[in-house]
Fold each of these.
Amino acid sequence: MDTLLLSILDEAAQEARPLISHYKVGAVGLGGSGAVYIGCNLEMPGNALNQSVHGEQFLLANLLLHQERVLQSLAISAAPCGHCRQFCSELACADRVRFVFGYRGHDEPEVFSLAQLLPARFGPLDLLEDPSAPLLLEQQQHSLAWTADAQEVLQQRGNDQGFQRAAEAALQAARASYSPYTHCPSGVAFVTSSGGVAAGGYIESAAHNPGLPPLQAAVVGGIVGGCLPSYDQILEVVLVEVQAAPVQHARITTAVAASFSEDVRVTVLHVTRQ
């Protein structure tokens, strides 16, 4: 199986969009179901580099989209950066994941554990108030309901089917998002010029910085779903987040979306916890 995963790396890297560095990264993972998933790096021109998506982050977001609960193996062409090692620490199965490296010129792949790649790491159990809380890839279910203002917007645009689909998809993404540290669930969905809708949920990290914003998670969904050949195909972005939450994504989502197209529309719909 390791050889198979490594053989797909070049194909995975061809999906990358490194529009700033021009350096393509591919990642391939084996899910608990036995299905194989890909990841690649994405960069957002006109934005800070911390708005990029690393290949391993893409892969884990892809697993979430397909409701995989376990990552068995992760194949990459070289050692993962510290950012991705920390991000992988969020996995409930982190200690069981096999990291497979296929160095050029080596006859046999090398296999490592996360403990070997990131010894004495800072992780979820160092920060969580409830050590039994579900971790990344485990089922999350935030009970959220539209505010009165959001319901009014939804009613006003009742005949806009694309918007209605995006709003519902963003709500479901927020309900399934991973925010155990701030308790600020959020989700994004967008509508493309072809009528496609893709969504993704916020993913936090105990170290905070290697998290994945909901817009980028939705972009992963669009690429995986085949409805986002380029960023400028996005017509409207719908962000769902908790009203007056300590962590909010409205400003940065609006800024990044504006870099995709001057005409992109961003709609923020607030929810409350039930």
Amino acid sequence: MSSLAASEVSSTQTGLPRVSLLQFHVTEDKSINLKTARRNIEEAARGRKGERKPELLVLPEVWNSPYATEAFPEYAEVLPSVEEGGDMRGSESAEMLSGAAKEFGVFIVGGSVPERDGDDIYNTCMVFDPRGVLVAKHRKVHLFDIDVPGGITFKESDTLTAGGGLLTTFDTGEGLFGMVGVGICYDIRFPELALLLTKEKDVSMICFPGAFNMTTGPAHWELLQRARAVDSQAFVLTASPARATEEMLEATKKDGKFPPYTAWGHSTAVNPWGEIIGSCDEGEAIVEVEIDVSKSMQMKTNIPTALQKRTDLYSVEFKG
């Protein structure tokens, strides 16, 4: 099931911290999705025999619900807030993620789930620390509204509201990954987000749970990850749902409540030089990689683009 990282050297030998990207199938049954996510978290958190266990896990975008605008309101949950201390009782997805983070002592970037807040529905990522505490929450800023003739038409704004917080980060400490940024899927198309995460928060890594499709995936999935890694001079991590099998698609077309969505898969990790250091194909997988955050610092020192901006001619500013 697992996909090995590019490095052949065990992290037990190098002492480098590890991350795991979780890629699994999503169904119309939320209870099954919760069990699948929990099972994958447990498998990833236990790590490989003889190797250092991962300190951070990343789940896919919209893992507890079908990826369909009509499904989002039905599957949406009232999620806890960071400011209020993260009361998980209103959300079974949050409760599961928090409990798993605490049980296995890992950071969990919880992919994303539909969130209900009053009359609004958001596509939201929750981040839990090894104590099970909610330390960050990112509402997808850029909604996936596209129309590619002969390819795909999808409009998240039919049911979703765009998030208003741009610079979502959490601190893992100097011994792990330092400051980590969060975006969701379509957010990766906007270099301003990655540039501002570096400028304002000095991130060493950015996580983008995503669900690219069979039109945009082959063309842009890898390209955008490598571009954002070079832009931000940071590691970029993505986790996608596994692509539905032909049998699953046929069953959905025949008996499903919502239209099928075919994810590209290929969860990937890219280093600040723009090199792929871990990836998988379209099926279920756990991608394990080592992260040497000094590589981010080296890039920022050796190619100091942050210090070479022509602010007399242009600027990328955070408006708060």
Amino acid sequence: MSDRAAENAGTLVSRLARHLNRKLSDVISILLNHKSVGSIGAVAGFAIAFVFAWKVLRPSQRRPRPKRRSNPAANGRSGGDVAGSDSSDLDVIRSPRQVVQGDTMRRKLGGCRKVTCQLIGVILEEKSPEELQTHVTVRESVAKVLFDLTKHCDLYLMETVLDNETEERVLSALESAGIFRPGGVMKEKVLFCSTEIGRTSFVRQLESDLHIDTNLEIISQLSRFIGRQLYISAMEEGQIAPNIFTSTSLEHFFS
């Protein structure tokens, strides 16, 4: 209601200003026809009066006031409660535990960028290629370690199998366990061979920086060519050579 009254008043003032402008123009026109000093003074006086009246009577132009944005903190709400907040920014925030785990893994890797790892006895519960012909069981606790490893290195998995059916069985078990989820191990980087010597050849051809295996003979053969090795066994964790470490499990070594 008050806005409408102000608008009407502004219109009235505008009309009055236009009316005075026309009247003043007529008066000035008459005075200019008389070129005496008095007439010129009168014209100047009328001009000054006109300018003063125009400034007083002209309608004021109201500028829109900018709207104030509400402050979520002032309203007692956190930034996550504000509609339209980008949740993707929250995904990059890591917990202190995740930071510590990442630092531990980088330290245990010791700068190794390419890692090769045996499946039997490390990733899988089975202990021999013969067992894989009947069943394949992925260790539940190892999936998270493999996923974290892929963030810090190029990871290859490999195993000795006795037939093509076993290959398919192993790949199916790994996929069901989520090993091939986005950001995890690539399915194309799971390699199979028919002999233990074939696994040794894989490691050398890939020029691995770190190899993980349960066969001490393979570990010993590769010690001349591979910078670091991890021997998974029941023996006490430690270091049996300058470049050979031991651990009871993959997850225990990187914990």
Amino acid sequence: MANESRPCPCDIGDRFDYGSRGHEVQVEHIKAYICKPPAGTDKAVIVIHDIFGWQLPNTRYMADMLAANGYIAICPDFFVGQEAWKLSNDWASFDDWLKTRNAGKIDKEVDVILKYLSGQCGAKKTGVIGFCWGGAAVQHLMLKNPHLKTGVSLYGVIRFFEERSSLLHPTFFIFAEKDDHIPLEQVTQLKQKLEQNCKVDYEVKIYPGQTHGFVHRKREDINPQDKPYIEEGRKDMINWLNKYL
């Protein structure tokens, strides 16, 4: 396990102001942000947020990017009304906060969103991406949910592969070389388990010099040398979805 007592720095210093192109909807008991492409499509992607919640501009930017690439993108509130983590919170309370927000217990909400996407949006093929907390949720879904077609887990804490590592769907794992929260030895162990047990396509990729949260942060203006890796990560994510959706 990674050190979960140290909260992820997904938006520390790099959160950016973004107006977003989509709109908010109510889907049964879940609020969600949705963005649709200019042309009609039957392909959708569920975007699972990090600990900073479904309203983080960074995450909505990624949803809009997916829509610009031809996907219906929806980012539900998987905390279901519970408060997202705030940088002003007491870090000592993080473990207790996390206990009521289990990335492995989102199945009910995913089923509701899948029903909405197929019934209200015409989606026939749906994939999922997730960042940090959401990346762990993607791992859970790729091991258990039969209705999704593919997934991309971005720097998700590796926690659901102890008992099973046979993925149901093609899955792309994005990790950062200098991630303080996911040691590279854990990534190596994950690779070994997948090599032994996985029967579907997968890829595990480590991006040199990058830190936790690099793909969904607008770091171009802050750290220019990271720009190529941010762009590469985003392109790899889109290419994976294009291949399997």
